[in-house]
Each structure stands twice: as structure tokens, then as C-alpha cells.
Amino acid sequence: MIIGGQAVTSPNPRPVLMPFDGSQVATIFAASKEQVDAAIASAAAAAPTMREMTLDERATILRAAYQRLLDGKEEMALAVSSETGKPIREARLEVDRAAMTLLFSSEEAHRLCGEVVPMDASPSGKGRWAMTVREPLGVIAAITPFNFPLNLAMHKIGPALAGGNAVVHKPASTTPLSALRMARIFLDCGLPAGALNVVTGPGGEIGDQLVFDPRVAMVTFTGSPEVGLRIRNLAGLKKVTLELGANSAVIVEDDANLDEAVPRCVSGSFAHSGQVCISVQRIYVHHRIRDEFLDRCVEATRKLAIGHPHQPQTDISSLITPAEAERVAAWVDEAKSAGAQVVTGGKRMFRATMEPTVLAEVSSSVSLSCREAFGPVVGVNAYQDLDQAIRMVNDSEYGLQAGIYTRDLQKAFYAARQVHVGGFLINEVPQYRVDQMPYGGVKLSGTGREGPKYAIEEMTEPKLICWKV
Ligand code: NAD
Fold first, then answer.
1. Distance 460 CA to ligand 1 centre (A)
2. Does ligand 1 come within 6 angstroms of the Cβ of 170?
3. From the DSSP assignment, how many helices (H) and strands (E) are in the chain?
């Protein structure tokens, strides 16, 4: 762990395993209650220093961290690939994206400002001038999931530091390595000791303490809806942002360009074995092109290379744990029993690896339709008209992103207005994100928006200063 700028251990070692083959890649240590307390105390002690730092000093540290991350890209990509089991090609992309997230955060630090308030727009405001300044919240607890252990952490740490806060970061217990490396990079780049602490260990054991502690002003969480709801219920009056799961859907109209739609739907469904919060899980295809779309999808899916994540050609490696692969395989069986047809794949292969799987005619009531699959499985169902497809997309407890493929702008914008989600993509799959865009969900997919410009708003508060002329 990193507490107060120091690397510390505890009497509770825990192995970090490569999900693909179960080999041990590192040993980390589960934090004790005293260590979590010390991490919060360090952050609270560093918060005044962060608050007094000029915007340019904060931006300079973030820019230096951006550069250092890129300079050591290959080692960081290997750490990400080893802890998550994601193919090395995708791990390199994650490092590039995390660097961009830091660059955008440094730019937002330069832009952080309040506004002039038109006080005399009220009769009683005559002779008063006022402005707002944006002040840091103090200590922010950042809790992150396993699937993008580096970039999703940077989406919290970058804007928090840009806004002048101190952070206690708790990475997922399976994927702590990139977070620890990154904390060292920040320290090397001049971040004051204590401004970024990393505590490792099971969220179920140390999460409540982080969320409850009165010195923590805000909890920013990315992960499952179950844990998000628990945090929301425990956090009381603290600020909370929640980036949760989804069962994202895309509509493919009969005028769609299938040369584009098919490969994007396949990569959108199977990148990182479907363990992406905006993975394509439900595809609704116009009945006139259903057979052609399905045939082309299956052909592209069968070309995906399954193998060790460090091999450059690998497209599919493994899920995070064997238990997760077992769960996804059981969900496929449940869908089959309810009448779904397995068009390709459908089986668990070895340890945590699952074949990329395309199903057709998936009942809307089975787990694979209504819950978050978080595995390499996609369901393709036909529809008769666009309104029906929109109803099918909206028939979900979640609402993170959705998309449509069509050449007809009328239809595209009609769907964009009717679908209830945080982001709608036209001629793109929902599994698309650049790091500066506002990103977040409605319904069970969460509250609040990320993207450095938007996160920094959540991580600072406006203070009004008014004076009588
Ligand atoms: P998870 O909810 O199991 O864990 C997320 C984090 O919460 C981990 O650090 C974990 O240790 C911690 N945690 C667990 N119990 C806790 C508790 N009681 N209190 C506080 N913290 C606790 O999620 P996961 O399996 O790591 O990640 C997968 C989930 O994350 C999926 O649902 C996925 O959709 C979601 N996700 C969402 C986004 C988004 O931006 N919307 C991005 C990536 C992943």
C-alpha cells in the first residue's frame, strides 16, 4: 500500500493471480482498520497543502504524470494485462487512454474558475457584487473496479487532484498493481506525500470504513449496482457519484451499413471478454436483415483468436475469475432452456475462459437479457419496426449508453430522443467512449458524470463571495 507517501505492508499477504492461468504475478497486503485510518489521516493532513497549491502547480504535476506514464507504457501495460487478464493490445490502449485522462485533467486544472453573479438582477441586490470560486471538497475516497483498473482510477484521481483534493484510492482486490505503480509515479512527479494514498484489500472488509469516516467528504465509486447502492445508503450527507453497470443495447436498422455495423458489434461485444460496463449485450436487428446480420456476426466472431493475454494476436483471453466464467456459462444454459439458440460458442473452455458466444431469440425475461452479463455473450433478436426496437432497448433497469445503425437521420434522432440512457451513439456501438466526453448513466447505471471537465465539477463546490460596494 501507499500511505503518507510510504510503501507499507500488513500481516495479511494476498496473492495477485493472472486470471488466464492462475499463476501468481505479485503479492499485495490487505489493509488493517488502523491502516485505512492512517490513509484517511494522511489525506486529511495533505488536503490543506493541495488546497493552497496553485492551479498551475496542480496542472504541472498532472502533466508530468501523463508523460511518465507514457514513458513507461510497456511496463504499465504488462501490469494491467497480468492483473486483469485482458489482451496486451487492449492493455496498451488502456494506458494510452489513462494518459489522456491525466492530460485532460491537467487542462481542466488550468480552466477551473467560478463566475460573476448578477446580484442586481434582484431589486434587493442593488449595490452588491458577487462571484463564485470553486473550492476543493477535502478528502475524496475513490473506489474502482477490476475491468479498467488504470483508466477508471485516473478518471477519479486526475480530476480530484486538479480540483485541489487529497485522495484515498481503493482499487479492486483482484487488480491493485497498476494503481500502486501509478501512485509511485505521482510521488515521483512531485505530488505531496499523503495527497494520494492507496489501500488494498477486499472492499467488503475496508469499504464501509472508508465510506463512513467523517473526514471523507465524497465517495466516487465505479462498480456494480449492488455495492453502489450500499455505498449510497451508508454515505449519508456525503457527496456520492456512482458509475454502475448496464446491459447495453444497439439497434441495427435495415438501411444500416453492415460493413461497419458488424465488426463494431463484434468488437463491442467481445473486447475484454465482454467485461466492459458498456459492452454490447443486446442487439436488436430489423427482421429484413436479421439472417444476413447474424451470418456475418458469426463469421467475424469465429475469427477471434483465443489465447494468453500477453500474446499480441490474442482477442479473447479470460474472465476475471473461474467463478465468473461459471456464472456466465450458467446464464447461457438458462437462456437455452428458455428457447434461445446458440449460434456460435456457448461453452466455458478452461479455467476462466469462455468462448465468444452469439445467441439468437433470447427471451426478454432471462438473466442474459435483464441483468448485466459482464462476459463474452451477446443476444441478437429481430424486431418489426423502430418503435418496437426502442421499447426493447428501454425495457431495462439500466441506462448507460445505447446506439443505432441507420443511414436515416430522422430515425437516428428520433431514437436518440426516445431512448432513456446517459449517452446515445449514432452509427456507433454503445461500447464507445473517449475520455473527455461526459459519461455516466441513468436508472440503475448510476448518478453523476465522469470525464475530467464534469468530474471536477462534482469534486469541487462553488463558494459565493458577495460584497457591498
Ligand atoms: P464491484 O462492485 O464488485 O467492486 C468495485 C469496487 O468496490 C472494488 O474496489 C471492490 O473491492 C469495492 N467494494 C466491494 N464491496 C464494497 C463495499 N461493501 N464497500 C465499498 N467498496 C466495496 O465491481 P467489479 O466486479 O470490480 O466491477 C464490475 C462492475 O463495475 C460491473 O457492474 C460494471 O458494469 C461496473 N463498471 C461500471 C463502469 C461505469 O463507468 N459505469 C465502468 C467499469 C465497470
1. 24
2. yes
3. 15, 22
The Å distance, Cα 114 to ligand 1 centre, comes to 33
CA distance readout (Å), 251 to 73, 284, 356, 379, 427: 36, 5, 20, 12, 10
- pLDDT for the residue numbered 455: 98
Alpha carbons 125 and 136: distance in angstroms, whole number: 28
Separation of CA 276 and ligand 1 centre (Å): 12
Question: Which residue has cell 494476498?
Answer: 14
pLDDT at 215: 98
Nearest CA, atom 32, ligand 1: 224
Known active-site residue 115: no
Residues 381-416: tens digit of each pLDDT: 999 999 999 999 999 999 999 999 999 999 999 999
**Contact residues for 264 (Cβ-Cβ < 8 A; gap 6+):** 428, 429
Compute the average pLDDT of residues 15-37. 98
**Cβ of 231 less than 6 Å from ligand 1:** yes
Pick from 277, 321, 439, 454 the residue to mutate for probing ligand 1's pocket: most ligand atoms within 8 Å of its CB: 277
Region 200-210: mean pLDDT is 95
- 284 membership: H or E segment, kind and range: strand 282-286
Q: How confident is the model at residue 274 (pLDDT cuts 50, 70, 90)?
A: very high
